Amino acid sequence: MKNLYTNIGMNNSIEYICNHILKIIQSPVRIFDLSNSLEKIIGIESYIEDLLDDNIKNFLLDNSNKNYPILNVDKDNIVYCCIYLIDKKIIIGPNCINKNYKNVNKKYDNIFEMPLDIFCEEILFIHNLYNNTEVSYDEMLIKNFISDELLHKISKEITDTYINTYSNNSFHNPYDRELRILESIRNGDLNNLKQSLDEKFIGQYGVMAKDKIRSYKNVAICHICLSSRAAIEGGISSEIAFSICDNFVRRLEDMDKIEHIQSIEKEAQFYFAQFVHNEKNNEYIDNKNYLINQCKEIIIKNINKKIIVKDIAKKLCTNSEYLSRVFSRQEGITIKDYIQREKVQFSKNMLIYYKYSFGEISQYFSFYSQSHYIKIFKKWTGTTPKKFRDEYGLKER
User: Fold this and answer.
1) Are residues 318 and 259 in the same domain?
2) Which residue of 234, 277, 283, 289 has the smallest Cβ count within 10 Å?
3) Tens digits of residue pLDDT in 273-302
4) The domain that contains 295 carries what CATH number?
5) What are the backbone dihedrals phi and psi of residue 89, each rounded to the nearest 5 degrees, phi first?
6) Are both 260 and 307 inside the same structural domain?
7) Residue 319 has pLDDT above 60, yes or no
């Protein structure tokens, strides 16, 4: 199969594709010949300064690896890319991948902002089409940023770790203890979780950063992430588990003492275990199937919207009557009641932590009216939103 590039007029093809890049990525496009001489710039008027400096330009043009697009990420925020064609080189950029960076660097104020993955996918579309290849996004990142030198360095450090471990008997924490912790979370077993966490062991957690505090944070983040996966396996919605994980990690990042970091980590583990425990002991049948879990996932992701059972069934490619029947049989509650109960459950946190009015809360969760929200809230809690807020709401908000 002949290369597409050979089937299209050479100059027209380059012009067309560069204008396409400009429209989609909204970054300047520069065309060079194989001797690195600039032929044309598209997207920059003659009186406007080109932000591409010589060091970045030379790096992109002189890179010997031409079977994939070459990336240059400046200060982790501003990205340029070079695509190698048969007898041309095209440099695209700058593109901003972090809007906060633009706020402190005025010269980048007018630069288009686009996530790195989308930017690269557009680049790869052009590269793969013209060079008749199938380079993927992950492959592009690996080839650009994982060098043989880096891999040799990692291998040497791993060898050094082995030597130090066996020389000093400084082994890692036991894996079987970690399995017991995760199994306790998966089963919602708070007693076994406490026993597992309280176990004394010979060894130590790995060093995951040069800075001691950063290392403890990284270890804790790993444990919290693993705990979230165990909770999902225990029956918790992945959307809920990921949200809990995100929030605990953000709290963790604010800590600057080791004991605080470890406390947050354990708090997260118990939080997940308690959530699983509540799920397993809240009038549910343990044997949930894939269809029911997917139904719950859709409800959680759309909890603030008006949720119609027929719409859920359509997304799951099933019949609404069948879905309702299976859900009620396995969960002991109708889908409609489940949706109401979950909306009420989520609204409790808004009553506790925020000053939103009952009307605003009812509108956010797509109840018919404030009075409808109050009626449903009382149905599931036995009290009114006002009495609940008066009793449990934070007094200083």
Assistant:
1) no
2) 283
3) 988 988 777 544 333 567 888 898 899 889
4) 1.10.10.60
5) -130, 135
6) no
7) yes
Distance CA 363, CA 355 (A): 14
The CATH number linked to 50 is 3.30.450
pLDDT of residue 363: 93
Sign, Cα dihedral of 107, 110, 114, 120: negative
Q: Which residues sit opposite 78 in a β-bridge?
A: 74, 96
The model's pLDDT over 55-106, given as tens digits with 9 standing for 90+, comes to: 888 888 887 667 899 988 876 578 899 998 888 899 998 888 866 554 445 5
Sheet with 78-84, strands from edge to edge, namely 38-42, 29-33, 88-96, 78-84, 70-74
Taking the complete model, does pTM exceed 0.90, yes or no?
A: no
Tokens of 150: 């880096």
Number of domains present in the structure of the chain: 3
Kind and range of the H or E run holding 80:
strand 78-84
* Amino acid in the structure at residue 218: N
Please state whether 375 falls in left (phi above 0), alpha (psi between -120 and 50) or beta: alpha
- The predicted pLDDT at position 357 comes to 92
